[in-house]
Amino acid sequence: MTGRRSRSVTISDVASLAGVSIATVSKALNGKDNVRPDTRRRVLEAAEQLSFRPNALARNLLTGQSRTVGLLTSDSVGRFGIPVLLGAEDAFGAGEMAVVLCDARGDAIREQHHLRMLLSRRVDGLIVVGGSTDPRPSISRELPIPVVYAYGPSDDPGDVSFTPDDVGGAVLAVRHLLATGRRRIAHVTGPTHYKAAADRAEGARRALEEAGLEQAGETLFGAWSQRWGRQAAEMLLLTQPGLDAVFCGSDQIAAGFMEIARERGLRLPSDVAVIGYDNWEVLSAETRPLLTSVDPNLERLGHTAAQHLFAAIDGQAAPGVHSMPCRLVIRESTAPPAPPAPPERQSGTFP
Amino acid sequence: MTGRRSRSVTISDVASLAGVSIATVSKALNGKDNVRPDTRRRVLEAAEQLSFRPNALARNLLTGQSRTVGLLTSDSVGRFGIPVLLGAEDAFGAGEMAVVLCDARGDAIREQHHLRMLLSRRVDGLIVVGGSTDPRPSISRELPIPVVYAYGPSDDPGDVSFTPDDVGGAVLAVRHLLATGRRRIAHVTGPTHYKAAADRAEGARRALEEAGLEQAGETLFGAWSQRWGRQAAEMLLLTQPGLDAVFCGSDQIAAGFMEIARERGLRLPSDVAVIGYDNWEVLSAETRPLLTSVDPNLERLGHTAAQHLFAAIDGQAAPGVHSMPCRLVIRESTAPPAPPAPPERQSGTFP
DNA sequence: AAATAGAAATAAAAGGTTTTCGGAAACGTA
DNA sequence: TACGTTTCCGAAAACCTTTTATTTCTATTT
């Protein structure tokens, strides 16, 4: 037996209890038109007493708007998807919008499936969250609703995309290193084929160029992992004797680098300054010393993406790829190399 | 101007194109009743040609089911919320269910607000995801729809809750340490007031008791952080000379412990074995040595919670708090202390 | 007192689908 | 032919709300 729900209370129940017509109830509840104050009070009391909730399905059917947006994450909702999602949810939260979440697990078929479902539910708009900053195929063609892309932009410049300005973020990082007196700066980052890796390397190059300096060694492309950070550290310490700073393409790489640097007896940040990327608190707030990192402001990105989706739903589109600025969060790992460096820890107190 | 959408194609458009009534179209499309094969073909062709998608709003209004479940996370969707969410989304994904996500940010007012919204949308059920394993106030009272609680159980035993069996997980961990020959085992974990911390400590106690052993020192309660792991390590190495294993209440604590242990020159796992908790891959797969850890199977937990919600929607409730078993993921950090321990790394190759 | 303007309340339509029930056609049997 | 059976299709109701057009009521003015 399919659990037959007890018919829920409708607007006509309220109407008959209050002794008025359903039209009057509707107007009284929605604060519309002209309805006498005491009538309104009577209606409100009746609605309260029956704990009446207007059936959103009926309203939506009538108005054609579902007051719902779909959030489509192509790659599994990960480190980057979450903050964007939170920002979007936050932007909508105040109103009456609902967010339905669909995770395609990187499967194009499943994405298509979810898309049909969302369309059939007549969602008012769509946010597509990429798993990386690499451009992804557009799905906006032939779609009757507005779409904004967050984190990973669409490959169609006619779409609306919001993506972090990784070049700018890297420039911020390297300029900061230069400002604190570092001169021999290396760069370790993720796999070559990631746009994020290429962009950050490009930003580092620009900042060094504008200071008239050479990068310490070629950019080391590898993985986003701590393990690669450790490997890269061993290579750098061997091949770059005068090294005084490293800009890492992720916090994980930075954490790995610092681990090895400490083991080798280098003092951080006196001997070598380190900057990470992503400002992933679980890492940047746990390393020794605490890690200076570029924060891509993902939550804000999600927030503005959602706001623009709102605007687009009302017909105000702003096509193009919008680069959102990053900010630098300065912690201990890039303090200037004070000449009389105090001992970093009292080593030797334990046997 | 409020972007007036071009009226979308309805079932009657299909009907007139196929030259039949709308009832026939409905039946043909839903594979219902008896409709002649070639009529069905004609209808399908017409629907395809117009790329007709049935308006779910209308269907839902009629059937009273919205084919939607709400996912209410009290505390911000965090480390633990995500896998549960993925599991749930996965369980529904195959069908036509949609998941609307609501994050109350730990604010009871906002939770109430979201709840009204979900009720007004006539969701078929609700999954409440807690931010910790501590019981939370029930919201099922007076609710016309089924609710299941995931991760953090409800404080009402009449509700349906799924929560990881932390006592059992801790037993697994300590038994494994005992099986690999460890005898002096310490336990470091999170804040006292967390049920998770208390449960894991209790599990450790039981496993030691059944082996007739004493725990090495009192359980050290602190924080879930890496930093606390480091502090605890310094204390333990000072006060527990014969220590040969540590069971940590989180992977972060374990990572911190291992960091200090390495610095002090201890060989891992030969001298001291380490076990973490949560099996958080970002950590457990990056430590040196790789970290053995208790995996609370959160994705599976979310999956079964969703399945049970399905069952509850169909009237098959299974009230009570269901403890879901954890599993132990064995990696390098608990290898038995082989008597002729090979040197762990070639130290000294670098200047 | 009658006329009228304005306010307040109601009746009815609309929105798109599913489902029930009745009708029609086709076919076989007496 | 008359009748029963099967097969297929269509008319119409139902779901619940908002909105438009219309009616009823109240108060003001002539």
In terms of DSSP E residues, the strand content of chain A is: 15-25%
Seen as an oligomer or otherwise, the chain set is: homodimer
Q: Pick out the low-confidence regions of chain A.
A: 1-5, 341-351
Number of strand segments of chain A: 12
Arithmetic mean pLDDT of chain A: 91
Class from helix and strand fractions of chain A: alpha/beta
Helix content of chain A: 40-55%
Backbone CA Rg of chain A: 27 Å
Alpha-carbon distance between the two ends of chain A: 72 Å
General shape of chain A: elongated
H and E order of chain A: HHHHEHEHEEEHEHEHEHEHEHEE
Helix count, DSSP H or I runs of 4 or more residues of chain A? 12
**Biggest sheet of chain A, open or closed, and with what strands and sense?**
6 strands, parallel
Instruction: Strand order, main sheet of chain A: write it out.
Output: 2-1-3-4-5-11
User: Largest protein interface?
Assistant: A-B, 58 and 57 residues
